[in-house]
Amino acid sequence: MPGAQQGGRLQGGGPSRAQRKIGKSPLCAMFRLVERPSVPQVSVVITAYNQARWLGQAIDDVRRQTFRDWELVVVDDGSTDSTRAVVARYEGDPRVRYLFQPNQERSAARNRGVAATSGRLLAFLDADDRWVPDKLAKQVAALAASPEAAFCYTPARFVNGSGAPLATRKPPRSVAGWIFPRLVRANLIILASVVARRDRVEEVGGFDAALPVYGCEDWDLWLRLARRHPVAVVDEELTFYREHGGNTAPEQLLRSAFCVIDKMYADPAMAREAGISRTAVRARHLWYHAAGVAAERRSAAARLALQALGESPSAVFSRPAVGALAALVLPQVAVRRLRGFPG
């Protein structure tokens, strides 16, 4: 496959003229570093909002990493639970720090964590997600082997609230290199799986705290990075994404995706670079969400399908449309088998 990669090695073509244009973002100033006696190689940023139930496991996963040259900042985004007390249990570890701010939402919290740290690599972890012990070691090595890559991700295995593995892996098949056109079509990448180069994140201005709806702010950042630079992958399930009742609601994720899509396509060059129209991308997301709710809310899925047809009739032949239609028509056991999941 063009642009495919295994073990952090990149293949694929070079950047377009538009991809080589590097601008100065007004947000870069907030990421200027404070001089420190010792600069760790990796800065880990955990943001938390009323996730004390899971937070200790996330911190423990960072502390268990076989790669030891890291610092960790937990940004408490206005929690009213025992988040502060959970972090206080680690006060004996000087690598772990706690920052509190009034609730400003996740982009502002992550940007504050970036600004408060100094490592040349940034690793992001949500309070309810988890890592395997050699995640950082393998991704640091992958980025060293691919100096042109802006960031490295891993596939993520979805788990339930108790940590038991679920059928979903995201993405089902990893891609790397110049993945921008593929990434426009859908967000392949779980936030907790990413290790990024600080200078590349600063270059594009960090997370967009001005997005009107949150949920896809990570996708927005990956798109801005992947438009300018190749992407590396460690094709192993080193990240666990936890599904539970506190996850962002599907309806909010869809509205947030539309915000990101409309923001992207405000650039007249976007359709040409991505190889797909704005309406077709919007339709694909409607089909994805229709498939996601079809098992429990078939009428809602049907409405999403009709909306997708209105956005872009030709998108009915796309893979997400076929999946959604199968979910609407076929028994769930057949849908799982079509997707390659065990029945």
* Poorly predicted tracts of residues: 1-14, 16-37, 338-343
Shape: globular
Series of H and E elements? HEHEHEHEEHEEEHEHHEEHHHHHH
Got a strand count? 11
CATH fourth-tier homologous superfamily of the largest domain: Spore Coat Polysaccharide Biosynthesis Protein SpsA, Chain A
**What integer value in Å does the Rg equal?**
20 Å
Order of neighbouring strands in the sheet with most strands: 3-2-1-4-9-6-10
Describe the structure.
There is one protein chain. This protein is of the alpha/beta class. The chain has 2 domains: 17-247, Spore Coat Polysaccharide Biosynthesis Protein SpsA, Chain A, CATH 3.90.550; 252-338, no CATH class. It contains 14 helices and 11 strands. A 7-stranded mixed β-sheet has the order 3-2-1-4-9-6-10, sandwiched between helices. The longest helix has 16 residues, at 278-293. It is globular. The two termini are 29 Å apart. Mean pLDDT is 86; it is low at 1-14, 16-37 and 338-343.
